Amino acid sequence: MTQGIGVRYNEQGVRLLSVIRSEKSLKITGLAAGPPEETLEFFLKSKITIPGNTSITIGLKPGDFISSSMMCKEEMTGKEMEDHLRWEIEKKIISDPSDYAFDFFITDTTGYVFAGRKDIIEEETSLFSDKRSSLAHIFTDVETVALYNGSEGAGEVGMDTVMLISVEAEGISSLVIDRGALVALESFPIQEEDLRFVLPGLDREGLNHINTATIQRLAGYIEQTVKRLTSYGDYKDKPTLKRFVLSGGGAYCGNLAKVVSKMTGIPVTISNPLKPRLTEVPESQAELVRMSAAFTSCFGLALRALED
């Protein structure tokens, strides 16, 4: 039996989700959210049981990384695609590219590259730098990939055309999935002071005081990302969105889902990565379970931890 933990962290709040995989099952066994306590490792160990050599994946949030993509061309090899993607993303980097760590992947239709600042990655992983730590395996992953993995693991992708959207204090991440295939993605930071001290640790009282103007601005950001991603590419048969799946702490900002649905004319559902796997989540975590969409990316990060 192995355990993986996914963590979203900033100085205002921590969210984590633990998953245990045995031969026959995959179960979510713990959730936690709140302001950091002393060190991140102390916070984890005070919230959930962590056996030795547990793997942990920490999410790189909007603003921690940049990405670029291009349509695949039949005449290009994988190495040529990677070289071109690196050239594309280096045009977005205003400092020395050697300050960044790069990751590439290529689907049947599109190539993607992510670049995260090494100092940010080192800062995140150093939260567990104590040599006495039993948490030996620390990884990082970008929020867009974690969002995809979490939504797919929850059975929310399907075979129609869906847009996955995560709304957080740090920014918005979104992906278009067409019949199971990733078509387009992006992640960008936002500046909403009302969210900064509320969303990271899931402050329910603070969420109840998010005002209408903030919700309208969030809906506007979502409308913009919809327009950008659905106009993606140079092929004629662009995908027509059938539904949205909304996740992140921002999913609980007032009536955001209804505002987005009315604005776009497309049905919106709230992500729920926990529903099929609640058997081992303690009753004491019932309030967090009711905010399950805030843990979709954490679920994806935990799944990544299991893979590694």
Task: Describe this structure as you would to a colleague.
The protein is α/β, with parallel strands linked by helices. It is globular. The protein has ten helices and 13 strands. It is 30% helix and 30% strand. The longest helix has 19 residues, at 212-230. It has helices at 40-47, 78-90, 118-125, 143-153, 193-196, 204-207, 212-230, 256-264, 286-289, 296-307; strands at residues 2-10, 13-21, 26-34, 55-60, 65-71, 100-106, 110-117, 137-142, 161-167, 171-178, 181-189, 243-247, 268-270. It has two domains: 2-63 and 119-307, ATPase, nucleotide binding domain (Nucleotidyltransferase, domain 5, 2-Layer Sandwich), CATH 3.30.420.40; 65-118. The strands form three sheets. The protein has a five-stranded mixed sheet with strand order 3-2-1-4-8. Strands 11-10-9-12-13 form a five-stranded mixed sheet, sandwiched between helices. Strands 5-7-6 form a three-stranded antiparallel sheet.
